[in-house]
Specification:
single chain, 471 residues, mainly alpha, two-stranded antiparallel ribbon, 14 helices, flat, disordered N terminus, SLH_dom, SLH domain-containing protein
């Protein structure tokens, strides 16, 4: 499996499920004409009326049709609103990185990647085109609602299943809990028929039953509750999309957590799991620093630097105060916000967006965001000409670039350069910030890579320093 840096926030405990399948949907957009003989008709219609299942035409529901592995994965991904919004990949992922039988060009590829990265319990030898059995889908669904629905652990009352000998031993626990949760029922003969292919109607019914169970078993959290170390680990792992193994610090699971110990646990976990980019921390004056354990001081200064925590109005941190769930959640969410805006891209050959270009310019030239006065599409890919123009215009408007006499050079592909960018490009050439190719072209429309953009901004710093020295 390829290495990924995962930072995911999931709210499936209270989220409304959204279960549209790609390619073949569960239900109709307005009414159903193929459910008359389906026992779960009312449940399926209820899901449709709630916007949980939808489709294009009524004939796509095919309630008695078997469901494929790919459709089952897509169902779970959409049900729990799983996504890759806060995930940073070292390289572009492929479905085959996780499931060797997958097709990277298929409609389901993104669903497989999303499920794998979000730790949905799926077999590594999953065949997307194979049909799902009742025991396979039930196991996947139960593992999903327990993971993302934040269900408390239960000791299920063991039910006598007449065909228990046919159930895969790895699925038996999930199936017992599914019966206890009311997600599935045994047949009149006491059998589950685990190896039978699951139909779309049966899958929809299990989803409906799972939703009803989740609605009835949500334990509301008290925001004023003082957290234990176990609570803190759970909050950190869930908010940041980690697993328990990412918590490297040994803790007393029942100990009450203070502001300093929670902050240290959070920052140390971020660092050891590789999710915190390298930053330069300028220590601030904390009025009650003498009360902070020396082993926690670095984490607290780091947390202040990234905006995860703030000092009180009197400059104190109150390190020994027990932390509430509300305060801990706010700190964790602040970290997520920071990581969203400070994502690290390790591939120097990757092209950059306008937002990344602006960030590179402001950081390299020691400016602030306000010095970028050019309106940009934050998600647009940056070309050589647009990046050069953004850099030169920023230098000029921020006062770092004095008036210089530019002798225009002959650019062989000048006809491809936007007239509004030509002056900036000529200036950049004159200052040795950029160079033409050996054939005298500039390639203005080529997307710029991170390494090239970094080199150009570094040369801009050198040019500014030269100009300042020669004044």
């Amino acid at each position: 499996m390829k290495k990924v840096f995962k930072m995911l926030t999931l709210s499936a405990a209270t989220a409304v499920f959204s279960l549209t399948l790609v390619g073949q949907s569960f239900a109709a957009s307005s009414s159903f004409t193929d459910l008359d003989k389906v026992a779960a008709k009312d449940k399926i219609i209820s899901l449709q009326q709630s916007g949980i299942v939808s489709g294009i035409t009524t004939d796509l529901f095919a309630p008695q049709a078997a469901m494929s592995e790919a459709q089952g994965v897509q169902l779970l991904v959409n049900a729990f609103k799983l996504n890759l919004d806060l995930v940073r990949f070292v390289k572009e992922p492929k479905a085959t990185d996780y499931f060797v039988k997958a097709n990277n060009d298929s409609w389901y590829a993104n669903a497989l990647i999303t499920a794998a990265v979000n730790n949905v319990d799926l077999p590594k030898d999953l065949d997307p085109n194979a049909t799902l059995t009742r025991e396979q889908f039930t196991h996947q669904l139960i593992r999903a609602i327990e993971t993302f629905g934040k269900l408390p652990l239960i000791n299920p009352v063991v039910v006598d299943i007449k065909d228990n000998d046919q159930i895969n031993v790895e699925y038996s626990g999930s199936i017992q809990r599914a019966i206890n949760y009311g997600v599935i029922k045994l047949g009149a003969d006491g059998k589950m028929n685990p190896k039978a292919e699951i139909t779309r109607a049966d899958a929809a019914e299990e989803i409906f039953n799972a939703i009803e169970y989740l609605k009835a078993h949500q334990a509301p959290s008290d925001p004023t509750e003082v957290l234990t170390a176990t609570d803190s680990v759970k909050l950190i792992t869930e908010t940041l999309g980690l697993v328990d193994s990412d918590i490297k610090i040994k803790i007393d699971p029942n100990a009450k957590v203070t502001r300093e110990s929670f902050t240290n646990l959070l920052v140390q976990t971020l660092q050891t799991s590789g999710k915190l980019p390298m930053i330069k921390v300028v220590p601030v004056d904390i009025k009650d620093n003498d009360q902070i354990d020396i082993l926690n001081s670095g984490s607290i200064q780091t947390a202040i630097a990234i905006g995860a925590v703030q000092l009180n109005a009197d400059g104190k941190f109150d390190p020994k105060a027990e932390i509430t769930r509300a305060d801990a959640t706010q700190i964790a969410n602040n970290v997520v916000d920071y990581l969203k805006s400070h994502q690290v891209h390790s591939d120097p050959g990757a092209t950059i967006s306008a937002t990344e270009g602006a960030k590179l310019i402001t950081e390299t030239l020691a400016l602030v965001g306000a010095d970028i006065n050019i309106k940009i599409d934050p998600n647009a890919k940056v070309t050589r000409e647009s990046f050069t123009n953004l850099l030169v215009q920023t230098l000029q408007t921020s006062g770092k670039l004095p008036m210089v006499k530019v002798v225009p050079v002959d650019i062989k592909d000048n006809d491809q350069i936007d007239i509004l960018n030509s002056g900036a490009i000529q200036t950049a050439i004159a200052l040795d910030i950029v160079e033409l190719n050996a054939d005298g072209t500039f390639n203005p429309k080529a997307e710029i890579s991170r390494v090239d953009a970094t080199q150009i901004t570094t040369k801009a710093v050198e040019a500014v320093n030269r100009l300042a020295t020669n004044k």
